[in-house]
Design a protein that fits this description.
Elements: E1 6-9, H1 15-29, H2 36-40, H3 44-54, E2 61-66, E3 69-78, H4 87-92, E4 97-104, H5 113-127, E5 132-138, H6 142-150, E6 154-155, E7 160-164, E8 167-177
Parallel strand pairs: 4-5
Antiparallel strand pairs: 1-2, 2-3, 3-4, 5-8, 6-8, 7-8
Helix pairs in contact: 1-3
Length: 182
């Protein structure tokens, strides 16, 4: 436990907190990167239902809390292979883990929450036999890129284009080996 932060498996009862952090973090972290109208249209209630359903059998979501207040979450699993991905990405990532989502409440950023979540995700990867982990990060999200670099991730320079609500965006693939210190 770092700075009074504890990390545990998420349960269905955490769905509302996870959804709220998801929306708040998007609106805060992606301001100026994703269209304001898209951010304003995010709906916590619909995300709560999505999370309740996802958390029925999902054992790859962890939440970080201080006392009873959930402050962040991370979701991890096998690296997703998509047809849209660059061939180089599809070739290098079989057998990798992927951080699917990693969000800390804006009010709790820079307080050790992200580090606590990362350390738990790192342990999960090792426990499941992974030796590499990757993630996609919005190219302009300098704060997140800096955080991930501090966790040992490096930019593989395999950016790919994608869209959110018709807005063209770029995401960076960052990765690291898991045999070194977390």
């Amino acid at each position: 436990m770092a700075d009074g932060v504890s990390v545990r498996w998420a349960t269905r009862d955490d769905a509302a907190s996870i959804a709220g952090i998801h929306v708040d973090a998007w609106r805060h972290n992606y301001r100026g990167l994703i269209d304001d109208a898209t951010l304003a249209s995010l709906d916590v209630a619909s995300k709560v239902e999505t999370w309740r359903e996802a958390l029925v059998d999902d054992t790859s979501v962890f939440v970080a809390s201080r006392g009873s207040n959930i402050l962040g979450w991370v979701r991890i699993g096998p690296f997703r292979q998509t047809e849209e991905a660059r061939p180089e990405v599809r070739a290098m990532t079989p057998g990798w883990a992927e951080l699917y989502g990693f969000y800390v409440s804006p009010r709790a950023q820079r307080q050790g929450v992200g580090s606590a979540l990362w350390h738990r995700a790192y342990r999960w990867c090792l426990d499941h036999g992974y030796r590499d982990v990757g993630l996609w990060v919005l190219a302009g999200n300098v704060v997140a890129i800096r955080f991930y670099a501090g966790c040992g991730f490096r930019d593989l320079e395999l950016d790919q284009n994608f869209e959110i609500a018709g807005q063209p965006l770029v995401e960076k693939l960052m990765a690291r080996g898991l045999d070194s210190v977390s």
